[in-house]
Amino acid sequence: MSTSPRHGFNTLAVHAGQGKDPHTGAVIPPIYQTSTFIQDGINVLRAGHEYSRGSNPTRGGFEEQLSALEGGAAGFSFASGIAAEDALLRAVLAPGDHIVLGADGYGGTNRLITRLHHKWGISASTVDITNLDQVRGALRPNTALLWLETPSNPLLGIADIAGWAALAHEAGALLVVDNTFATPYLQRPLDFGAHAVVHSTTKYIGGHSDVLGGAVIVADYLHRGQSLAEAVGYQQFAGGAVSGPQDNYLAARGLKTLGLRMERHCATAGRIAHWLTEQPQVAEVYYPGLADHPGHELAASQQRGFGGIVSLRLHSEPAARALAESMELFQLSVSLGGVESLVCYPREMTHASLIGTPLEIPGELVRLSVGIEDTEDLLADLERGLALAERADQGAVLTV
Ligand code: PLP
Question: Is the same domain home to 291 and 244?
Fold first, then answer.
């Protein structure tokens, strides 16, 4: 079935790039587990494919599916979220360029930019994502790119994407939005003027914690005389950090149910966030769906729902550690966005590379990735965990 941008989200998720196999009629396109493609003559390609680093039908199907959902001109799939970010940066930047980087964001992105790309002459200034004056003040004549994550990881800050995009356009720079937390079901940054979106498809896109991947989706835009699609496509081919066919199949399969899963993640996370605000062991709850969250109205204006991630601050570091280590359904793990609930202690897990910097995550913070299990079971797990956290807070020796 051919799709058009007029189709609804779930129709596109199921059908875009996922046409049936014309040879057998199989409803699910085959997994093209091949490295190369036989040529009918020298450089006469049968269906446009030569070698799977350059293109592969399974990867192409997933790229088309995700790009359709983000409303992009083209999509590119990589071996991990960080590989996707790295490829995008290499494709559009040159030595001497400067990046304005949202301070609250995935620690690995900060590490990639400030530790790896720094060596190749890229500088970066970090800014509060919610403060557009600070973003404007950080712009320099050599600013080539603004990098934003909203909602942010792990503090769930909300940034005004259209405001950031206006500043990027004024400065002649690109705006990249990491849309991993919101997914295209909740938010489409390209509609607000962003030039490119990146994903760790490891998270909600794959949705089942069984595949690692990343993606870049670009708008139809000319950057330094080259279309973004050409620049990222060439980097993908020449740099080679592509995702394999099995991984693309898993990601495409997960993506088909993204809308259903996000509805459920949002509903359960919303209930849990409200419940947490009533618990005496909890000092603060970070969830954009709460009416008193500073970004609540902005999130409501640019997102369809508030997402499945809830962060909370306990009264002490021992309490936070005890909560993270004591639950059963919320399994202690890095990563997020799967059907199963996970709990993470960001300071020493996902954001350990920020320890000792001004951006280090407070030790009282715990991040929950709320899965699709029954809400009552998740609340019972949290209630038990918070009781143990309270004992840790009082200095009791725990027997978990
Ligand atoms: N962006 C965000 C928001 C993330 O949370 C992560 C990983 O946790 C990444 C990017 C990096 O993705 P990956 O782990 O797939 O390389």
Answer: no
C-alpha–C-alpha distance, residues 120 and 310, integer Å: 36
Tell me whether residue 313 is one of the annotated catalytic residues. Answer: no
Kindly calculate the radius of gyration of the chain based on its CA atoms and give it in whole angstroms: 21
Ligand 1 neighbours (beta carbon < 6 A): 80-82, 106, 108-109, 149, 153, 178, 180-181, 200, 202, 212, 214, 350
For 300-319, write each residue's pLDDT tens digit: 999 999 999 999 999 999 99
One domain for residues 222 and 279: no
The domain in which residue 179 lies consists of 9-255
Structural domain includes residue 400: no
203 is catalytic: yes
pTM, entire model: 0.96
Closest residue by Cα to residue 109 from 200, 240, 209: 200
- Show the tokens assigned to 34: 């091949």
Q: For this structure, is 53 an active site residue?
A: yes
CA of 82 to the centre of ligand 1 (A): 6
Q: Provide the CATH number for the domain around residue 226.
A: 3.40.640.10
